[in-house]
Amino acid sequence: MGPLAQCQALLAAVLASAATVVSTSAPAQDRLAERTAMIETIKWHARSAPSAIVRQNIDPAVLNTMGKVPRDLFVPEEQRGAAYRDRPLPIGYGQTISQPFIVALMTDLINAGPGDAVLEIGTGSGYQAAVLSPLAAKVYSIEIIPELGKRAAARLAELRFDNVEVKVGDGYYGWPAHAPFDGILVTAAASHIPPPLVEQLAEGGRMVVPVGGPFATQVLMLVEKRRDGSITTRQLLPVTFVPLRGGKAR
Amino acid sequence: MRAGLLPVSLISAATLAHEVLLMRLFSILQWHHFSYMIISIALLGFGASGTFLAFARRPLVERYPAAFAASAALFGITAVATFAGAERLPFNALEIVWNPGQLGWLAASYALLILPFFFGATCIGLAFSRHSRQIGRVYAFDLVGAGIGALGTVGLLFLVFPYAALRLVAALGFAAAALAATGMACHRWISAGGLGITAVVIAVWLPPYWTAPGPHMSQYKGLRMALEVPNARVVEERSSPLGLLTVVESPTVPFRYVPGLSLANTQEPPAQLAVFTDGDSITALTAYDGDPATIAYLDRTTAALPYRILERPRVLILGAGGGEQVLLALRAGADSVDAVEVNPQMIDLARNRFADFGGDIFSRPNVHLHLAEARSYAATTGERYDLIQMPLLDSFSAAAAGVQSMHENYTYTVEALRDYLAVLRPPGVIAITRWLRVPPRDILKLFATAIAALEADGIAEPGRHLALIRSWNTSTLLVAKSPFTDEDVAAIRDFAAVNFFDISWAPGISASAVNNYNQLDQEYLYEGALALLGPERANFTERYKFDIAPATDNRPYFFDFFRWRALPELLTLRTQGGAAMLDWGYLILVMTLIQAAILSALLILLPLWLRRRTLGGAVHRLRFGLYFLALGLAFLFIEIAFIQRFVLFLGHPLYAVAVVLAGFLAFAGLGSAAAAGWMAGVGRGSAVRAIAVAVVVIAFLAVTYLLALPFIFGQLLALADTAKIAIALFLIAPLAFFMGMPFPLGLVHVGVRSEAFIAWAWGINGCASVLSAILAALLAMQVGFTGVVTIACILYLIAPALLAGSGRYDQKASGLVPDMNATTGE
């Protein structure tokens, strides 16, 4: 990381915290400046995590949507002030809204195109679905906890993310009526990947699974279906960390 | 005084019981890395009370019965109120990385939880001051109470839930207050009666929701998350000192808990009940109707690998849990299954309460369920097996957060693996399944441990005895008694290929055959296996940024991967996932140490320093201060090293804490009481001489135990629990007896020079106790128990030299001076 990047990150952080102060005093104000700072932070993180990013940089389209979606409206009232900070936030029911950088990485990995249908297991706040919405043709999202699901559905409708459909239910069986999916995002922790989801993944489609505990994403797993029917995974670290000292840094 | 010294016993029992209970309750509410915080909170309360009494003793002692009763009643009130308050604080341990404000809530819990210990200790300190002519008797009542409190709580926790036990502890505080109040000059019977009624009311009536941990459990624990799902409900709850077991049924969204299941599997698992231990660490009870086809998916887990190379094996399962591995063994055609489980309540749930649900598999003639700790069973069984299965029993999030890092674990040490190999009949196999963490830690450490065990058994080419496969989230290591044959390797390859598993090590595997299905950015496991099996081993282990050196019985911290030099890098990367790679257990211990150091300086040392002028010359102040510092550190170093050492012998950390603590308390008390006689006889009137002889005896005994304990444990591991507890106490007795002497003898020595120094000595000793409880744990992880005990011996041996040089005051010394710190084990 060069000194310039450090300066940028520092500037972004200062902007973000300054904006936080402003926003708490004027809640109605659009928080564009904070979003801009957030995007800068994501870019800074991305430069230091080349292994997790498929192309050289995070797709500008992803950053563009993230610069528009009002993240503050997807977090609980008491977390609004911290909505654009570079961190995951609690949203109740033992669930969290991921750190912006992780949202960007996951969206980038899904690589949704304008004609694609994307399935999300674990709607949570609805923020991830909102970010996917402008990038895909259709986003289907299933939430297990009724209160979260209903709230997210109402919020997404209110903010006119019209191509997102949310239902409350068991994500294990996917959403066969709309299968196959070009991208599937499994944010609800599971001991194994449900077979119906693998089945509903289109050939050449991508499934992304964040692995780790609450507040601690360890790796992002990319599941791909090969032509011969075999299924492979790739474990992508969101950081560059070589466990062997003196080992080859990439 | 009408009640005699009984109130002292009661409050002493209540205070220690409260300490043990808080450890249990916070394991349920949060995670068990809070155990050490509770120890330091308790000791801090004791230390602060010593300082308080140094200032306020006189007026309180004059009104002794009322002051004792008031302090005991305050203990009763604060025991319940501070816990109820602390569990309601919005503290979230997982958020500390992102939000330093959480440390404020942690400090707030500290401030609250100290109070009952402060009041309990104040009662005892008052008793010592009031009865200064019969210190020996006060000690006896105090220490008997403390011993009963520590042991009794463990027994009590088998009978009642922890929140109910907390009410009983508070009631005990009020009972002590009522008894003490009978000695008051006026309003005697009204006060005693009122306090007595309060005790009864608290014991039977207090609303359970005040202290119930359930609603305040961290919402990020598995149990809380499971109960958020519609129609999920608790169908059974069992509590014991070994943990709170909660059985949950979730008909709408079934659990389907099958870690390590292949991506090639297409079968949905049958209905399951989830059993959570302390709200986390799930194990599944799987519905079974006797048709093996319904559990065919189990063939596609990494743990099924050994059944591809063994035919009709005799199977030993270490950690039966809900019985998933028993099902797999039955499906795979095992000849017989012996399953070992340490928790009797888990056995009852699986074998009796939910027997019908699980298809009564534990009642089959070829299935036997044993109540035992894994290691003890393996070391003592006469049976021989073809396969030892060690399944995954901890939760992924617990493994991921590194919360186990400071827990001794004797099931994954070099000595343990050798014990397991010894009960295998050739060509038997041990299969160990762990979560796969990226970058790898557990698996590489396990691999290194297996190599060390095989080599210790005289095997020249350990690589031919090892095989390692992995799915995307689990990894299974096979350790074979005989070298794998070519057919074995072919079977392993087939199994891996059909299930999209990767082979990270097998005899003859080449670099082109690894990292196919579940790709890591680099095949650390294969590279690690190659390095660990070759001449590069020491260099590789040294260069790896996590600690993967084999765990041994002397340093049984299998889950401790922390290395200081990786810390700066991981902290820099913390907001990008680096925090997830940190093993927090160790770091939390360090933070606790720093926190305790600051607090003990503020609460104990600073007030005493302000009164330093009364303490005499600066040189003596320094030397005497260092003496009590050395004692405080050394006593707890030995006590804690013994607690950790006895975990292996007694089979569970909680038994070890209760038995060793009770033993050290009681026998150190006896030693303190006998110190005057020792000084007159052996010391010929000189405290310093008496101390010098005592510390030589201590060092001799400690070193002897260090060498002899592994042998003694090896011989006696098979005995019944009660016999082992008696033997443990018998072993501790002589050592603790002599360890009880240096403190009161030191007080005699300095007391004749400056009476005011006694308070100072208490303070320093209390402070050292707080720090050494945590320091001992940290040191054990670095240098092992041998190292900790050696350091303690050195501290003991240099201590008398610090007092020497002012010997002529010795002759004036008469009677013993109060030593309230002995109640905490100094």
Description:
The complex is a heterodimer of chains A (250) and B (826). Helices cover 33% and strands 23% of the residues of chain A. Chain A is of the alpha/beta class. Chain A has one domain: 3-Layer(aba) Sandwich (Rossmann fold). In chain A, strand 7 (201-213) and strand 8 (216-225) form a beta hairpin. Chain B has 826 residues and is α/β, with parallel strands linked by helices. Chain B has helices at 6-29, 35-62, 64-88, 101-130, 135-159, 162-181, 188-205, 208-211, 222-228, 324-331, 344-353, 374-380, 396-401, 414-422, 442-456, 486-499, 524-533, 537-543, 567-572, 578-581, 584-610, 618-650, 653-681, 687-716, 721-739, 742-751, 757-803; strands spanning 233-240, 243-249, 272-277, 280-286, 314-318, 336-341, 367-371, 385-390, 424-435, 466-470, 474-480, 502-505, 518-519. Mean pLDDT of chain B is 87; it is low at 807-826. Chain B starts with 5 loop residues before the first helix and ends in a 23-residue tail after the last helix. Chain B has an 8-stranded mixed β-sheet, with helices on both faces. Chain B has 3 domains: 1-217, Growth Hormone, Chain: A (Up-down Bundle); 306-561, Rossmann fold (3-Layer(aba) Sandwich), CATH 3.40.50; 611-826, Growth Hormone, Chain: A (Up-down Bundle). Chains A and B meet through helix 7, strand 7, strand 8 and strand 9 of A and helix 9, helix 13, strand 13 and helix 20 of B.
Topology:
The complex is a heterodimer of chains A (250) and B (826).
Chain A: H1 3-25, H2 32-47, H3 60-66, E1 89-92, E2 95-97, H4 100-110, E3 117-121, H5 127-132, E4 138-143, H6 146-158, E5 164-168, E6 181-186, H7 195-200, E7 201-213, E8 216-225, E9 231-236
Parallel strand pairs in A: 3-4, 3-6, 4-5, 6-7
Antiparallel strand pairs in A: 1-2, 7-8, 8-9
Chain B: H1 6-29, H2 35-62, H3 64-88, H4 101-130, H5 135-159, H6 162-181, H7 188-205, H8 208-211, H9 222-228, E1 233-240, E2 243-249, E3 272-277, E4 280-286, E5 314-318, H10 324-331, E6 336-341, H11 344-353, E7 367-371, H12 374-380, E8 385-390, H13 396-401, H14 414-422, E9 424-435, H15 442-456, E10 466-470, E11 474-480, H16 486-499, E12 502-505, E13 518-519, H17 524-533, H18 537-543, H19 567-572, H20 578-581, H21 584-610, H22 618-650, H23 653-681, H24 687-716, H25 721-739, H26 742-751, H27 757-803
Parallel strand pairs in B: 5-6, 5-8, 6-7, 8-9
Antiparallel strand pairs in B: 1-2, 2-3, 3-4, 9-11, 10-11, 10-12
Helix pairs in contact in B: 1-2, 1-3, 1-4, 1-5, 1-6, 2-4, 2-21, 2-27, 3-4, 3-6, 5-23, 6-7, 14-15, 15-17, 17-18, 21-27, 22-23, 22-25, 22-26, 22-27, 23-24, 23-25, 23-26, 24-25, 24-26, 24-27, 26-27
